[in-house]
Automatic annotation (TrEMBL):
InterPro entries: ClpP/crotonase-like_dom_sf, Pept_S49_SppA, Peptidase_S49, S49_SppA_C. GO terms for molecular function: serine-type peptidase activity. This is Signal peptide peptidase SppA. GO terms for biological process: proteolysis. Residues 109-255 form the Peptidase S49 domain. Keywords: Hydrolase, Membrane, Protease, Serine protease, Transmembrane, Transmembrane helix. Belongs to the peptidase S49 family. SUPFAM superfamilies: ClpP/crotonase. The chain crosses the membrane at residues 20-39. The lineage of its organism: Bacteria, Pseudomonadati, Pseudomonadota, Alphaproteobacteria, Hyphomicrobiales. Pfam families: Peptidase_S49. Coiled coil: none annotated.
Amino acid sequence: MANTADAIIDRRRLRRKLTFWRAFTLLLIALALISFYFLSTGEDSFSSKSTPHIAKVRVEGTIFENEELLKRLKDVEESAAVKGVIITVDSPGGTTAGGEAIYEAVRKLAMKKPAVAQVGTLAASAGYMIASATDHIVARQSSIIGSIGVLFQYPDISELLTKLGVKVETIKSSPLKAEPNFFNPASDEAKAMIHRMIIDSYDWFVGLVQERRKFSHEQALALADGSVFTGRQAVANKLIDELGGEDKAIGWLATKGVDSKLPVVEWKPVQKSSLGRLFSESALNMLAQYLGIPQESAGILRELTGERIFLDGLVSVWHVDGKPVGAQ
């Protein structure tokens, strides 16, 4: 009996030791993860942003009303260390409301600091609108510029529903409520209503171009027929000011009193931490498992939940890629 009691005591003692070391190990892992989180979310360029520099802000992809980008532009505007700003544009456009919001933010910034746009491959539609908010536009010879205009798109799936034997019944307060819709061909009245909206936004866009590029109304209208131009054509049509790259943008800033030897520091969007991405991936994998689909399908879930297929409302866009501006 004594041996049995001693064995029980030894097992309990061993269990307590194992519990202690397991808890200690978990604590170390938790501390390591917390440290990794703060390191990965830290501002790696804080010191470079606190000394005099030229700020670079990228406007890329399809344009939405991006709160993070608007805040970043506001921070650049208010930073005493920023002496000049390069807005790098590479966008086919996007929603008119998104373009308007970013345009206004860039204008406010440009009223306080010299701001120049440097176009990469493309600055079309709302992308060109944003570039025009700066006081000087530089583009490559082969950049694509323009597509000044507005459109409204909606799918009509009525024939598909008919083939499937589905009929959508609608009761509404007035004929133009919720028109046009996916389920019926648009009436002439609905098309006329949307056309009036488009023309109103188009006139507003043309007015911006006329004001910013110092065109007459006739000159602005002649260039605002939806056409796109190469950089060479755009400079000839005065849609941009100069051909070249970032060096030309820095050269223009120098004419405004900005030291050309200052470092160019990119103000990047706030990135989700590696730890956060890990947790997001795990959550998506768990959701896929819960739904009874392969974990490889988590990528599809990410596409469905993280990006929008259609742009809502009026858009000013050349080609839609579905990725919000600033997406990495």
